[in-house]
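Hi R.,

Here's the chain you asked about this morning:
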Amino acid sequence: MRLIGNFKEVVKNSKGDVIVSFAIENYSQQQLVNQLKEQKYSLEVKDYHDNRTLEQNRLLWKLISVIDETINEVATPESEMAIYISALLKAGAKYDYICCKSDLEQMLREKFRAIQYIKPYDETKKTNVYRVFYGSSKFDKKEFAQLIDAVKQMGYECGVEMTYWEEVL
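And here is the predicted structure, written out as tokens:
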């Protein structure tokens, strides 16, 4: 089992044992921590380097497709995009709002990785409000890791067997 966490503190208990603590923020790794038993483990602590790759991006989209198939029986580009947008929101991804004429929605789709219709703005002028995301290709390593965690959490929540995905993502 490999865990990633942020060092928090070193304390001594009443017996004089040194206790080193780490904060585990990743949802799926928190599930692994729950499996730990009171026994002796071999530990290695080293600096963390996140290596986002095109392969990770491909696997992320494959997991989104598996989640879509689990929820809807058949994956479609529209429902996969809805899952992706939900994951972006769960991951705290940056977004902005744009108001434009409804007939320009296709142009928005060409300029942004993901867009989400929010509500009408002015029905007489046929304008709507959209939430726009730049997409994961613009993310730094930390942001991409948060997106992966959000998608994994969604997989757990909808009942996807996550053993394989924990190994590859």
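One quick note: The chain has two domains: 1-48, 54-168.

Cheers,
M.
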